[in-house]
Amino acid sequence: MVLKKSKKENEKPKVENEPDCGRHVFSAKETRELQSQLLVWYDKNARTLPWRDIARTEVDPNTRGYSVLVSEIMLQQTQVATVIDYFNKWIKKWPGTKELSKATLEQINQAWSGLGYYSRGRRLWEGARYVEETLDGSMPQTRVELLKLPGVGKYTASAVASIAFGAQVGVVDGNVLRVLSRLRGIGAPIDNQKVVDHMWKLADDIVDKERPGDFNQAMMELGATVCTPKAPSCVTCPVKSMCAARALNAASIVDIEDTCVKCGKSELKMEEGVLNYPRKGKKTASRDERTLVLALSHPNSSGDLVYAVQQRPASGLLANLWELLTVPGEGKQAADDQDEAGKQQKEVKDEKEVISTHLETLKVAYSQLAKKGEVNHVFSHINMTYVLYTATMDKKYEGLELMTLDNFLVKGTSTAMKKVVKLLQSSSSDSCSMKRKSLTAATAADPKQRSINSFFKSVKKE
Ligand code: SF4
Ligand SMILES: [Zn+2]
């Protein structure tokens, strides 16, 4: 796409070689208005956030850049309210790349636990090591250089470069995309790369040259607090005077060009108003998956139960995190013609077979294999069902790492696995209390029976 230079400042650049009506850009005059209206609004309304304070007051560029990078990586998939606490603890523990580079991956996963998308924490750590080992501790300051850090894409590089170092580059995240598509009436689906490229071009063009970081944050803040996805507050919006979506009415829809790719006229519905924008692309359907989890336990020398645990592979879903034994293979699904009860029985039977075969391969002698229940967890594109089984190891097996559940939970494990452990703990306390009840009843019926306390003491000594 080639843009002709506009002759007058309030004349919009024309687009060549593509059916484009030319309305989806800002003139120089509109750009100046947008910058001043948005910054005045931002100065009055910006939320106080710890990383913003650091970006504003920290004099050391490396600390400033690092802190903004940490916040941006944490914010990639997580809400601001959740990130604040994690950010504060992280910065207290690892105030710069030097400290972070010395951490272990296990410490990283532990500190990231609960934030989700764990590879972000690992990449941040790898980035700190890269800065220390390759750049002698100096944080890169431009979009191009920041892009070389692991896990840093165009958005994060642009955000850090502009917020921490004043680079004159725009940002495009989900909020900015929404605001820009509404302001400029861009109704084409936003999963179209050409539309995304156009948004980046717009963002770079309109960024305030004196205060690029504040302008970018203002655009994102506007999207997060005023121009929200489902209930935008157009009445209080500081830039409503230049909003194409707000000006949309029956008459203006007629005016919109059918041939312009970016207008997306055919999809516009009068009754949806500003919510016509942005037009989402087709969603990728989530897939259903089942994972068999085996809580394989053995009492340690003090009588506490220890469980077999394993670390996940270094790449892929939940990379490097610790988990209870998960068993390859999902367990065969029951044949369609069976009734519900038969189906479940068959499924359980087949899952047991899968687990038994796996334990035989590991040469682990076990007993009491039983199903405890199921836990669902939704990942970005996977609806996962964890099917929990328990079994007892007949003797300690050296090839497996064993630990108590308490130690396991602080080792760096996913939220999904924590849910599984919760189910395990609740099912063990149920069966424990049942055992206690039956033992109490038996003791009451037969005074010669050992008391429940002596029973637990004797188990401890074993
Ligand atoms: S006027 Fe409404 S739709 Fe337009 S930018 Fe403001 S909040 Fe968003
Ligand atoms: Zn158009």
Characterize the biggest β-sheet.
6 strands, mixed
Q: What's the CATH topology name of the largest domain?
A: Endonuclease III, domain 1
CATH class of the largest domain: Mainly Alpha
The fourth-level CATH homologous superfamily of the largest domain is: Hypothetical protein, domain 2
Mean pLDDT: 83
Question: What is the CATH-assigned architecture of the largest domain?
Answer: Orthogonal Bundle
Treating each run of at least 4 consecutive H or I residues as one helix, how many helices? Answer: 17
Percentage of residues in DSSP E strands: 5-15%
Intertermini distance:
77 Å
Q: Let me know the number of strands.
A: 8
Low-confidence stretches: 1-16, 331-346, 432-462
Radius of gyration: 29 Å
Work out the helicity level.
40-55%
Ligands bound, unique: iron/sulfur cluster, zinc ion
Structural class, judged by helices and strands? alpha+beta
Helix and strand run: EEHHHHHHHHHHHHHEEEHEEEHHH
What would the principal axes of the Cα set say about the shape? globular
**Total number of distinct structural domains:** 2
